[in-house]
Design a protein that fits this description.
alpha/beta, six-stranded parallel sheet, four-stranded parallel sheet
């Protein structure tokens, strides 16, 4: 098949492409490189310039790229809003895409501000509704809940062939509105041949790491307090590292010297940051809750779930620290979990089956 993967989200489409290409499909990624993460695609409509010059360059690249968004068997996008909304540009381009390709899908992978069903679920029915309000702090108002956003969502989700969620949080909202084009939830893919596993060995101290992008959404204020408490109680055993906004390659290099990754507290599921860490053999704290496991019909995972309280985070981190003699074992379990459940070739086959069945 000839496939266009439109937009990028932390390497999701990069890993899907590598799996699809391995089994013989013709795949093109068109994206803005996911901003500062600098994840390259085949068609780049982003800009690394700031201000008005960056906006002009991006608009020019979009206009000159649109003619290449046609004649595909499958177009899969990471958001219903990938292009600028002003002057209706985004809707015009998606109209062109719908009219010039065989099938169009959305992989529901975190774009809460633009997806009405997800935003409504996180606000009204999710167990940690604080997640919704943390998202709203960065995107106020949440466009998908405005009158124009709801109208656009109705148009977009009537036109596409299906929604493919990547985790529980992005499936449940569509289930609650009985959306008839909701497809099977497909786990995140990981090209494990490109993520080199190393044993989780402890140096002079146990290194705990937390990434500093999307701080409110990840619960960074709570995590920071718990890590400070851990450092204060175990000053000779613990090293704390906070860093953010790293390109993907630099991020993976950093993780090689880390023992424990404290990911996030509000999501019951886990994302690509956690998955990269697991594949490297790191211990991941945050995510992997019961609803997440049920979504994928799993009995257990190597991830240590968290509740959004400083006390629970500190207790879980201290419990991990007290078992540091098992870090090599835990790291090996992390890697096996990715190999068994997120192999990029197996996941690519799931996408093919889903696209063909919808």
């Amino acid at each position: 098949m000839r496939i266009l993967l439109l937009g990028e989200f932390s390497g999701l489409h990069k890993n899907i492409k590598e799996g699809l290409a391995f089994i013989g499909h013709d795949v093109t990624i068109a994206s803005s490189e996911d901003g500062w993460k600098k994840i390259p695609g085949d068609i780049n409509f982003g800009s690394r310039k700031w201000g008005i010059f960056g906006k002009i360059e991006k608009l020019y690249k979009i206009v000159t790229s649109v003619k290449r968004f046609k004649n595909y068997d499958i177009v899969q996008c990471v958001s219903p809003v990938i292009f600028p909304k002003f002057l209706g540009i985004n809707k015009l381009i998606f109209t062109y895409i719908f009219n010039n390709n065989a099938k169009v899908f959305l992989v529901s992978s975190g774009d809460t501000p633009h997806v009405t069903a997800t935003a409504d679920f996180l606000k009204n029915d999710y167990k940690h509704s604080q997640l919704y309000y943390e998202i709203k702090k960065s995107y106020s108002p949440i466009w998908g809940e405005t009158t124009s956003g709801r109208k656009y969502n109705k148009w977009f989700f009537n036109r596409i062939n299906g929604v493919i969620p990547e985790m529980y949080e992005y499936a449940e909202g569509f289930r609650q509105i009985n959306y008839n084009k909701l497809c099977q939830t497909i786990p995140l893919p990981m090209n494990i041949s490109k993520v080199i596993y190393t044993p989780n060995a402890i140096g002079k101290k146990v290194v705990f790491f937390h990434g500093l992008n999307n701080e409110g959404v990840k619960g960074t204020p709570l995590i920071r307090k718990a890590l400070d408490m851990l450092k204060e109680k175990y000053p000779n055993e613990v090293e704390i590292v906070f860093k953010g906004y790293l390109p993907l390659n630099e991020y993976l290099d950093l993780l090689k010297d880390v023992n424990v990754v404290v990911d996030q507290v509000y999501y019951t599921s886990y994302g690509l940051n956690a998955l990269y860490s697991l594949a490297l053999g790191r211990i991941v704290v945050g995510g992997g809750g019961r609803a997440c496991l049920d979504e994928f019909k799993l009995k257990k995972s190597p991830i240590f779930p968290l509740e959004p309280s400083v006390e629970d985070i500190f207790y879980k981190l201290e419990s991990v620290l007290k078992n540091k003699d098992r870090f090599t074992e835990y790291g090996a379990q992390s890697r096996r979990f990715v190999e068994d459940n997120h192999n990029y070739i197996d996941i690519a086959k799931k996408y093919i089956k889903t696209w063909e069945g919808c």
